Write the structure tokens for this entry.
Amino acid sequence: MKYFELGLREAVDLVRSGQITAAEILESYLVHIESADREIKAYLTLAFDRAMNRARKIDGRKEKGRLAGAVVAIKDNIVTRGLRTTCGSRILENFVPPYDATVVERLEAEDAIIIGKTNMDEFAMGSSTENSAYFPTRNPWDLERVPGGSSGGSAAAVAGFEAMAALGSDTGGSVRQPAAFCGIVGLKPTYGRVSRYGLVAFASSLDQIGPLARSVEDCALLTSVISGFDRRDSTCADRPVPDYLADLGSFQDRIRVGFLKETSLRGINPEVAASYRRVQQMVTALGFEVVSMDFPSWEVALPCYYIIAPSEASSNLARYDGVRYGFRAEAAELADMYIRTRTAGFGSEVKRRILLGTFALSSGYYEAYYARAARARQAITAELRAAFERVDFILTPTTPEPAFKLGEKQDPIAMYLQDYFTVAASLAGIPGISIPCGLTPDGLPLGLQVLSPPFAENRLFKFAFLLENNIKFKNNMNGINTRGRRKNEN
Ligand code: GLN
């Protein structure tokens, strides 16, 4: 086994006990990324020198943090001091932040090593990473296919063994959906669990940072490190952070698990439906009580999200005016400068969202669109809250279909439909985790989404860990050939 194949927990244990050095691990990544990323293209910026300096410092110290030697990739909408942060956009092409996001500070305080910044859909708007202003990222399981999005670079880096784990952001599914497409684990924490200080804002009432890793354990460890109160984010909750890793184990109480009614699986990909039914059988066989449930609001969650998210984005993105950050197109008049900068700096999906959002918020339309969507959001939240009176967890597929081919979804609505299962949790602010639950006959990974009540991440991890142990999805390196493509063996 090569060092870059080590899981995060394994690697950290070896480094902390002095059996290998962080520098040796990093060396191994250097060689692997050099060849694998030529095909996968997960990274926008690599920071090998910076990472090696950190590794040497960590190796030289006696006291080592909880993430000593962990090689972590960061989505490029999370700011890193002195390291370019583009948000996948031309408008921030040369933006070098003067400060670190809280999550980055917390990772580094525990001796994690940041290896680079990952590709993403511009401003996190998209589900395939094809909206990156730079290049698309490819799915390590099949290079003709997308890795999902918007945290597609983070997911592909982890699945392609180009990082042990990564951070992404999830506004409507951007951690969970790429995790599903790439056969890895991804968590969107409860809104307020993790500080958003230093996360470039897309839709502030929905945005949340979450980890992507190759196991539930690794996700749990990372979540413990990045969670917790932060004065610099007023939406960050002041609640104690459990040791999520130590909490993994069996349940003492009786667990009830909610599944979507058979009728709500109509219209989704048959492989996805079949794997969902297999999970239901497995959960029944494990002795849990299975409850079949109806969620009428699931139907309105998607349109509701596509009013609220663009509305907030149109306001958040007003700050890119060519004066304060990054790119500027010169012009004689100030108004012309704004227009030219934004015309050249934003891609078409970002412009579409700004237009949609501005329209939904404009006087005369506000009541019909934004206010209505806000009411729908309350109804969705109430429906989920009521559901959690009856069950402990709700299980759904993460995505309506497995990873699709690059260029396949030209129609924006077809792309938006990818978020069908993920946006309800975002609107309600509850946590959701995606874990791999099998492969299609073509060898593409499928994801299972597990939802829980707010701030119940400890139980969510526990249940996901139990499912993971029973599903036994293999995510090892035996399959990666010289092109970085994986041979499937599940
Ligand atoms: N795909 C969704 C969108 O385009 C979700 C994006 C996200 O979670 N950042 O808005």
